[in-house]
Structures are given as C-alpha cells and as structure tokens.
C-alpha cells in the first residue's frame, strides 16, 4: 500500500457518473458555515524539496497554503503539499484516503502516494462528509446534491456512486445512508432549514419531520440511532420512527454532535443565547437515544465546534479553552478526568481561523496548538503525551485515515 512521492501537479477529472452535477462543502464537525476560497493543485514535496517518506496511520492537517501529511505515531512530516485557499479535510472511510473540500469540490487525497488522485466530485460549496454503514456520503450545499459511494472503491480510482439524489432546494445540509438503504437527508433552502426526510431505494419519501428548526449536523449512536441537531433540541431517527427531544431552554441550539457505536448517549454542544455574536458556551449536552433524556453538563470552561469527540469505549471528550481534554462518562453525565494538553486559548470570532482542534482515532487523541505551531498525540486512558511536533506553519484542521480503527 505504500508508494513513493509522485512529484507532479495533481490533475482533477470529474467523476463520470456525476459529471453533470455541480457539487458543494462543510466538514462533519463544523459550525453553521460553508467553504469559501479558491484552491490550487498539490505538489507533494517535503519542506526542503526532497521526496516524502513512507508513512503509517497517516494524518492530514491543513495550514494556510497547503497540507501536511504526518506519521500517526511520530507526527513527523512525510510530505508538504501546496494547496491554496481555505480547505477542509475529513476521513474518506478507508485506510489510505482522505477527502479534501476545496472551492472547486471534493477532492480525494492518497496518503500513501502523498498526492491527490484523479478522482474529484466537483461542485460549488462542498459540505458535509459522512461515513456510516460502509458508505461515504457527500452533501453539496450549493446545489443540494447528495452522492453516496463505497470508500473501498477509491483504491481503484474514481468510484462509481451507488446512489445520487438532488434536494428540492440547495441548502447547508447533510445526508446519511442507513444499513437498510434508507437515505436521511435534511430539508431546507438557502433561508431556513426545518428537518429531515427519509427516502427509500427509489427516492420515494417514506417519512419526514419538520419539527427541527435550523437543523445542523448529524451523528450515529448505538443501534443506529441517528441524531441531528436543532435550535431547540435534537431529532432522533431509529427503527423507522422520529423522536423529538426538546432543549430545556426555548433556544437551546445543538449544532455539532459526536456519536459512538459503543454508547446510546450522544454528545452535543449547547448554545442558549440567540443574540450572541459568538457564544462561548460552558455546557455540553448528552442525549440518551433510548430514554429521550437530554442532560446538560457544566464544564467550567468554554470550547469550540472542533472540540467534540468520542473515545474508544464511548467516552465523551471535549477540548476546553483551558487547554485540557475533559473526559465525560456519558451514562452518568459526569466529568471523570481532565487531561492537560495545550495552553489556554480563546475561540476566535472568524470560524475559519485556526484554533486548537481535537481529532480522535482509536486510543489516541490528536490536539493542535496553532499558537505554538504544534501538534500533540495523547493517550486517552493514561493522559500521557505520546508525541509532539512543532511544524513550520500553524495547523488548522486535523484528520486521518480511519479503516481498522
């Protein structure tokens, strides 16, 4: 699976089956925003111009002007790939590729070759990338297009979509395909978003629920309970039925979530001030998908939309502005440990500006520290720092390959 660096500019060809689509972009963990600037091609060279090293369990991190490919254990730089503009990264769903959202659409990056492949899903404002039940689902905000493919097919080049769908109106949305083939997709337009529709194999509508104002984000809990956030709680879809869980406040927005197959309890953010220019909340939400109970947990520190993750045993993890990872028992709703990692920080007003970011894979938490141009790997159970590196540029987003983890 390992290959040496290909020192070339990546060419991008449209995916044949969706060449007529104009696709668009946010990440799986993001605020209520979309992607903006122009992006160029990658070169795949290290910072001193030498061929890149082979890498295992690759991480891909963004900086202003490019991507670093890092070894997941040592955090050493394997490649420095130039890429202009503001770009977002998400796991593609296999052990080799990541999806890069650029202004031109979703591009596929090969971490073994340390270069972009020829596969591209072009379109305006590429949004959420969702991995579930062995499928990867792309949502294009600018057109409302949904594309579903098997990430295993990325090894053969351009994957043939197993399904495509066009929303009635473009909007900042998200979609997920269930194990039974049902497609859950958001309802809305450029002005508002109201809920979810459930579609069968022939795109016939099986169910809908419009009791979720400002619907944003998604996550899957144990037994395939799918949860999306609302401005007044969450909406759960499981076993063919919708359940609305109300927030304790009239405005209690849950826009970003983190789920685990190990737990029936979902972790979400929680904002209760509709008039704030940027609310810096100190409470997170825990939603029990079995009982329908919503519980708020006081952290004593604020956090950002890139602060939520789940541990290998279903632990709820929140990276606070105090510089520590707060470990929460989702069943008890209590903070059980704090793991100091970085210095204190404050969430910037501009959502695209770099801030400490949490990415978890297996038993390891990766935490960026832009102010120090640093990245740290931490063992979640012991709190031990496994590796740290100072990079030439400050890291913005962090992701990695995920198959086998």
Itemize the secondary structure elements and their pairings.
Blueprint: E1 13-14, E2 59-63, E3 66-70, E4 77-82, E5 88-91, E6 97-102, E7 105-110, E8 115-122, E9 126-132, E10 135-140, E11 145-149, E12 163-166, E13 175-177, E14 183-188, E15 193-199, E16 205-209, E17 216-221, E18 225-230, E19 233-238, E20 241-246, E21 257-258, E22 265-268, E23 283-288, E24 294-298, E25 303-310, E26 316-320, E27 324-329, E28 334-340, E29 358-361, E30 364-369, E31 374-379, E32 385-390, E33 398-400
Parallel strand pairs: 1-8
Antiparallel strand pairs: 2-3, 2-33, 3-4, 5-6, 6-7, 7-8, 9-10, 10-11, 11-12, 13-14, 14-15, 15-16, 17-18, 18-19, 19-20, 21-22, 22-23, 23-24, 25-26, 26-27, 27-28, 29-30, 30-31, 31-32
Characterization of the model:
The chain is mainly β. 0% of the residues lie in helices and 44% in strands. The protein contains no helices and 33 strands. A five-stranded mixed sheet has the order 1-8-7-6-5, with no helix packed on it. Strands 4-3-2-33 form a four-stranded antiparallel sheet, with no helix packed on it. A hairpin with a 5-residue loop joins β23 and β24. The radius of gyration is 20 Å and the shape is globular.
Mean pLDDT: 88
How many helices in DSSP terms? Answer: 0
Measured as a percent range, the helix fraction is under 10%
Number of strands: 33
Summing up helix and strand content along with how strands pair, one would put the structural category as: mainly beta
- Span between N and C termini? 17 Å
Shape, principal axes of CA atoms: globular
Could you name the ranges where pLDDT drops below 50 across 5 or more consecutive residues?
1-30, 32-43
Q: Calculate Rg over CA atoms.
A: 20 Å
Portion of residues in beta strands equals 35-45%
- Biggest pleated-sheet summary: 5 strands, mixed
Spatially, the strands of the biggest sheet line up as: 1-8-7-6-5
């Amino acid at each position: 699976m390992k290959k040496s660096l290909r020192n070339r500019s990546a060419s991008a060809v449209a995916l044949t089956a969706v060449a007529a689509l104009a696709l668009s972009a946010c990440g799986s963990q993001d605020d209520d925003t979309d992607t903006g600037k122009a992006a160029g091609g990658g070169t795949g060279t290290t910072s001193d111009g030498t061929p890149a090293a082979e890498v295992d369990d690759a991480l891909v991190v963004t900086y202003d002007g490019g991507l670093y490919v890092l070894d997941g254990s040592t955090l050493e730089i394997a490649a420095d790939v130039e890429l202009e503009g503001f770009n977002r990264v998400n796991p593609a769903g296999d052990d080799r590729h990541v999806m890069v959202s650029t202004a031109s659409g979703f591009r596929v990056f090969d971490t073994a070759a340390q270069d972009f492949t020829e596969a591209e899903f072009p379109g305006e404002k590429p949004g959420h990338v969702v991995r579930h039940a062995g499928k990867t689902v792309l949502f294009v905000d600018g057109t409302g297009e949904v594309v579903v493919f098997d990430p295993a097919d990325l090894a053969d080049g351009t994957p043939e979509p197993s399904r495509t769908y066009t929303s009635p109106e473009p909007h900042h949305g998200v979609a997920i395909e269930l194990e039974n083939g049902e497609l859950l997709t958001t309802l809305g337009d450029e002005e508002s978003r109201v809920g979810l529709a459930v579609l069968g194999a022939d795109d016939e509508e099986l169910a809908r629920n419009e009791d979720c104002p400002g619907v944003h984000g998604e996550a899957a809990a144990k037994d395939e309970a799918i949860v999306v956030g609302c401005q007044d709680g969450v909406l759960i879809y499981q076993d063919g039925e919708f359940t609305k869980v109300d927030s304790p406040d009239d405005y209690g927005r849950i826009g970003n979530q983190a789920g685990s197959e190990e737990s029936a309890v979902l972790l979400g953010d929680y904002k209760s001030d509709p008039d704030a220019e940027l609310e810096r909340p100190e409470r997170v939400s825990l939603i029990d998908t079995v009982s329908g109970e919503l519980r708020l947990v006081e952290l004593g520190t604020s956090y950002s939309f890139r602060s939520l993750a789940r541990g290998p045993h279903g632990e709820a993890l929140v990276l606070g502005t105090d510089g520590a990872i707060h470990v929460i028992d989702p069943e008890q709703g209590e903070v059980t440990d704090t793991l100091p990692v970085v210095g204190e920080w404050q969430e910037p007003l501009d959502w695209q500006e770099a801030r400490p970011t949490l990415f978890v894979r297996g038993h390891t938490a990766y935490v960026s520290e832009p102010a120090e141009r640093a990245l740290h790997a931490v063992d979640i159970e012991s709190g031990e720092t496994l590796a740290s590196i100072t990079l030439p540029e400050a890291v913005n987003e962090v992701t990695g390959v995920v198959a086998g983890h």
